[in-house]
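agent> Task received from the user: take the single chain below, predict its 3D structure, and emit structure tokens. No templates, no multimer pairing.
agent> Plan: (1) validate residues, (2) run structure prediction, (3) serialize to tokens, (4) report one or two observations.
agent> Step 1 OK, no nonstandard residues flagged.
tool_call: predict_structure(input=
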Amino acid sequence: MATTNKKIKLKEPVRIRTKKLADGSESYYLDIYADGKRSYEFLKLYRLPEINARVKEQNKATLAAVETIKSQRIIELTHNKAGLKNTSARSKILLADWMQTFYDDQKRRGVRGVKLLGTVSRLISIYIGKNKVRMGDIDKEFCIGFIRWLQSDYKTSWGNPLSPKSMSDYVGYFSTALNAAVRADIIPENPFMSLTPTERIKVPESKREFLTVDEIKTLIATECPREDVKRAYLFACYCGLRLSDVYALKWKDLSQDGEQWRASVVMQKTTTPIFLPLSGQAVKWLPERGEAKDEENVFEGLIAEPNINKVLAKWTKAAGITKKITYHTSRHTFATMMLTLGADLYTTSKLLGHSNVKTTQIYAKIVDSKKVEAVNLVDNVFD
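)
tool_result: status=success, residues=383
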């Protein structure tokens, strides 16, 4: 029989794919083919438009993480075919050592929330004390015990109990670390996933303070102790940018197409790039550019956030507004104003740079409750 030298190309069981998103970024996912079946795993990791060197480096780190997950999935498939499960040796890794390893990896990749993750590691160390807890020891009972300890025993350095929101955040970051341990084949499953709703921490929906249109008009007509704070705050009321993004906004980020102004922003909190059209009202509160260069900040010399909030407190008091106003209420104001004026939920979500519409739905609930209040005013007139 004749033989050929033609090489047989083996198909990889796991391939990296990307899906283009409307904001210009790409979402990574794995295309997994095993035992004649195809499945997809969306990683919630993204390749961002490379508008600067920092984002380019972040994209490299993200791709490295994706490649690591891909390798882990291939190993898992190989083990499953051979009838192998998680090795007991790896599950003997100390919990404290894994938390440090995970923290170092997240810090290297520039993932947001690293500071909170460090706090979680410290809390876990306090909870376990001198006990040598290994990864294989982490079960449902351990997770419930940690939650109950946060709820009942732990106190802050000021002697106060943790808020439900803080507890939920800490547990969430711990769960994320355990998910990473599952992907690294250190533990077979994340026990937090098996908790019932009654065993989890319940977080009451937070109240989001915002200004009405009439209150904005009142503020505009009221003198503010600092003109730059007034401009920066009202600008955010009309565009929804966070204070961190306002601090970072440079003149080169602003562009004009005919009558329409736009801001190109990589959001500091989420590193999400957004291309934000600016209304005439937003542009109105921008400071005069003068001879400022492209690389200079738009709101040059704006004071630190604690001092901004002190100025806002004096300003709103002078305007007769009794609500507790911080700079972030400008973002809430923009969101509720858009929905009140008839913008749809999806559009408002994109303007805010939310990755999930569910986050924006909180504002929709606020607007709906205001509608109910307005309708019920009829009863006051006719009763």
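agent> Step 4: summary for the user.
The first helix runs from residue 53 to 81.
agent> Done.
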